[in-house]
Amino acid sequence: MRLTSPSVAIVFPGDPVDGQPAVPSPRLDPVFTALAELGLAVEPVGFETARAWEIRERLRVVDGVLTWVDPVGPHGDRVVLDALLREAAAAGTWIGSHPDVIAQLGTKEVLYTTRGLGWGCDTHLYGSPGEFRAEFPARLAADGIRVLKPSRGNGGLGVWKVTLGDGAGGSAVPGPETGVVAQHARIREEVRQEMTLGQLMDRCAAAFEGYGGTGRLIDQAFARRIAHGIIRCYLVRDRVAGFARQYPPGLSPDERAARGLALDAEVPAEAIMGLPSAKTMYPPDEPAFARLRALVEQEWVPGMQAILGLDTNSLPVLWDADFLYGPKTAEGDDTYVLCEINASSVTPFPPEAVPLLACATAEAVTSARARL
Questions:
Q1: Which of 116, 162, 176, 310 lies deepest, with the highest CB count within 10 Å?
Q2: Is the peptide bond before 30 cis (omega within 30 degrees of 0)?
């Protein structure tokens, strides 16, 4: 039996401590407040796999569910939680980010399936270790630097930048004993590991084993303008709700100025992997991102929806797309390359996203309740 008032559960990682309920991150406080101000009964639900049965019962009595649980975390993946969410959806509960939709756009595989859009670049998908071992060496030889990403993960888990020789490309195809330099995104650029290509391939084999054995490995061209940082574009459904910027160490605008570097000066990017600086948030109407916003809303998101077969109401209620800078056009305009899409646990987010998220949630929950 559902609750009397329209209701939404907010699911986050956590387990009771000393009999006290798990407490969500303070970053989610604005979401709780905004939903309550719209008249929704909001229930915090700490998720831990061992308590799946209890959580299942709690999700049966609400009208909607928002989740902030990483796809892969210290305690495992989301396989159990995703099964609960699918069951709740089948019973009529609205799910803010349905697991089936996340599987389409919230995994690195979307870099391959949408590579033909304007945000794409030279991207390949390996479905098995055999494919990877057979095809990757030639691509690495041609480009000199490639980036490998498991289809599922977060925080740089399993992401490697692989450099052959001087990184310029055009080398002979390497064998398993050929030396390469590998940088793991989770360690950032402080550690560059020398190993053989065979050893690197062995380490990447885990990408095919994860998440119920459905893992894939994505092979993407290295964005050689990474020194200019990354732009995170936040969306509520199909509308941009804000932006964030991050830079490599020492290359933010203030740091460039202190070093006497022009803002648009190109610097060697071969050693850069990962952008650990704090995010600077911007509203959706930030002039610096006006062109990117137009491309995202008018071309790329509709194009992605057409490729994936997703209508607007099926899109996650909050998600983000990370962009690196691609080569400049002949006219001197920036281009952008999709780095990843996050739809499982988007935080932090710009304050401007909260009212849009709350309104979209309230509308969806009310509609779901009316259909029962």
A1: 162
A2: no
CB atoms within 10 A of CB 218: 23
* pLDDT at position 29: 96
Question: Rounded to an integer, what distance in angstroms lies between the CA atom of residue 99 and that of residue 114?
Answer: 19
In the chain the first and final C-alpha atoms are separated, in Å, by: 11
| pTM reported for the whole predicted model | 0.91
In the chain, where does DSSP find H-type helix? 29-37, 52-59, 79-90, 99-105, 109-113, 129-143, 197-204, 210-213, 253-258, 290-295, 301-308, 353-371
What is the number of other CB atoms lying within 10 angstroms of the CB of residue 104? 20
Write down the pLDDT at residue 190.
57
What are the tokens at 276?
């650990």
d(CA 184, CA 206): 14
Predicted local confidence at residue 255, as pLDDT: 79
Within 8 A by CB and 6+ apart from 126, the residues are: 132, 135, 136, 208, 216, 217, 218, 219
Question: Would you say 102 and 315 are in contact if contact means Cβ atoms under 8 Å apart?
Answer: no
For residue 317, the number of C-alpha atoms closer than 13 Å in the C-beta half-sphere is 24
Q: Write down the pLDDT at residue 289.
A: 97
- How much of the chain is helix, strand and coil, in % rounded to 5? 35, 25, 40
Give the pairing of strands 94-95 and 64-67: parallel
Query: CB under 8 Å to 356, separation ≥6 — which residues?
Result: 236, 239, 241
Residue 187: what pLDDT?
45
**Among 372, 371, 356, 370, which residue's Cα sits nearest to residue 38?**
356
> CA 211, CA 151: separation in Å to the nearest integer?
10
**Mean pLDDT, the chain, as a whole number?**
89
Over residues 146-165, mean pLDDT:
84
**What is the C-alpha to C-alpha distance for residues 191 and 310, in angstroms, rounded to an integer?**
41
User: Over the Cα atoms of the chain, what is R_g?
Assistant: 22
**List of long-range contacts for 253-261, beta carbons under 8 Å, 24+ apart:** none
Greater pLDDT, 91 or 2? 91
User: Residue 215 CB: number of other CB atoms within 10 A?
Assistant: 20
Contact call for residues 283 and 350 (beta carbons, < 8 A): yes
